[in-house]
Design brief:
This protein is of the alpha+beta class. The chain contains 16 helices and 16 strands. The structure holds adenosine-5'-triphosphate and magnesium ion (MG).
């Protein structure tokens, strides 16, 4: 074991050679969310503890066991956000966004913190893409939000992700359901875990979400919420299904989904994969018509989801989905001697200003290791500058893939020469670019 400090349990490093996977996912997520009319919101990493206790709910695992709470000097305690919805709604209220007309749509990509038992797909610090749509009680809003999640899943290239939907009703129909659940679980009280015994009185529906095999075994035969829905909730659920069908989105009704957080009403949904083991919920969300009022705002219907990006990427890797490779170095200046290095710096600056990806030696190595390095970073072109090149103010521009060389001058004309060969390469490699250029030429 090395004697330097290791990362905390349940956290992950994304090293530079792996970050292209995150860039792929983040750019697809942002583009898709924008396409659906969502704009990004950024919120603090920590909030007053009370925000999560009030919104997520004090009978949930998250609040009871998983929060990272720190007390700063003074009297307030703060909690690292376990999810993004509470902070987003808090920010919308605090910034008066809900006075700006409906619907309001916001998305985020952020880190969440939960003190859980780390395992594949379950971390203590993880990342969510999430979105919130505020101000519509209409089932077409539910369908639109689900369509956004589905669209992201399709665009990253995932297959066989099942959408499960359910309705957990409104406070009115849930009261009857709670009564039925309580009766059912009361008879099996002695077998339930301690936490669920406590939940029995306070929020029996939570028992359905318990991860203990004994409790979930008992829950198998519990009454289902769909038998208790009031007419309005039933209608909402049916219209949601009509909308999804209209959009060509396949789904399965799963009356067992209740979701892990307290604030949900009516629609709840999950996108599930069987490819990454037990932690297969890639995305979970639903409607939370009571939350904004709970947080001190006006009664306002809303819904959203959170998509776990580690689980998404894990599934993409398992399924062999493609990630956008990072752009390799366009041009490397190898230099011999101080004057040559200075020239390399000047030319590299010029080329970078034009948007090319350029490197030169910053270690002070000899020519051979410089060339080895250029090869390692996959540089497309190399220019070697030595005393002779300085004297003649010209050098060879070498294509590292083909070995072809052309003469170039070591001044601002280099830009034009380099631009020309680069253009030829793009024309050869990139079908889209080629088609674009041909169309442009046809139009001239
Ligand atoms: P689970 O049942 O897997 O614990 P959850 O109901 O606690 O999920 P949500 O609070 O709805 O999850 O969070 C939304 C998404 O965030 C999940 O569907 C999952 O993809 C991801 N997620 C939740 N907890 C973790 C975690 N500890 N590590 C990695 N991803 C997570
Ligand atoms: Mg959980």
């Amino acid at each position: 074991m090395a004697n330097y400090i290791q990362k905390p349990k349940g956290t992950q490093d994304v090293v530079p050679s792996e970050s292209y996977k995150w860039h792929t996912v983040e750019s697809i997520v942002a583009d898709t969310a924008e396409q659906f009319g969502f704009r990004e919101i950024r919120i603090p990493t920590f909030e007053e503890t009370g925000l999560f206790v009030r919104s997520v709910g004090d009978t949930t695992d998250v609040v009871q066991k998983e929060m990272y709470t720190v007390s700063a000097t003074g009297d307030s305690t703060f909690t690292l956000r376990p999810e993004g919805t509470a902070g987003t709604i808090r920010a919308m209220l605090e910034n008066g966004i809900l006075n700006e007309g409906f619907p309001q749509r916001a998305y985020y990509i952020l880190s969440c913190f939960r003190h859980e038992k780390p395992q594949a797909g379950r971390l203590r610090e993880f990342h969510q893409f999430g979105c919130e749509m505020v101000g519509s009680a209409n089932p077409s809003a539910d369908a639109d939000v689900i369509a956004l999640a589905k669209s992201v899943i399709d665009r990253v290239g995932l297959k066989n992700i099942q959408l499960n939907i359910n309705s957990i009703g409104c406070p009115e129909c849930r009261a009857n359901y709670h009564k039925a659940l309580k009766e059912y679980f009361e008879s099996k009280k002695d077998e339930l875990c301690e936490t669920c015994n406590d939940r029995l009185d306070r929020n029996p529906m939570r028992i359905l979400d318990c991860k203990s095999p004994i409790c979930s075994g008992i829950a198998e035969n519990a009454p289902v919420i769909l038998d208790f829905l009031c007419d309005d909730c039933k209608d909402h659920f049916e219209k949601l299904q009509e909308n999804l069908t209209l959009m060509g989105i396949e789904f399965k009704i799963n009356p067992k989904i209740v979701r892990g957080l307290d604030y949900y009403t009516r629609t709840v949904f999950e996108f599930i994969t069987t490819d990454i083991g037990a932690q297969g919920t890639v995305c979970g969300g639903g409607r939370y018509d009571g939350l904004i009022e709970t947080l001190g705002g006006p009664k306002t219907p809303a819904l959203g989801f959170g998509m776990g990006l580690e689980r998404l990427i894990l599934t993409m890797e398992k399924q062999g989905c493609e990630f956008m490779e990072e752009r390799k170095c366009d041009l490397y200046f190898a230099s011999m001697g101080d004057n040559a290095q200075k020239k390399a710096v000047q030319l590299a600056t010029l080329m970078r200003e034009e948007g090319f990806k350029v490197e030169y030696d910053v270690v002070g190595r000899g020519l051979k290791p410089q060339m080895k390095y250029a090869d390692k970073i996959g540089a497309r072109f190399v220019i070697v500058i030595g005393d002779n090149e300085i004297e003649t103010n010209s050098a060879k521009l070498k294509n590292m893939q083909t070995g072809d060389q052309i003469d170039v001058t070591l001044d601002e004309n280099l830009l034009e020469s380099f631009g020309a060969v680069y253009y030829d390469i793009l024309m050869g490699e990139d079908e889209n670019f080629k088609a674009f250029v041909e169309a442009m030429n046809d139009n001239v």
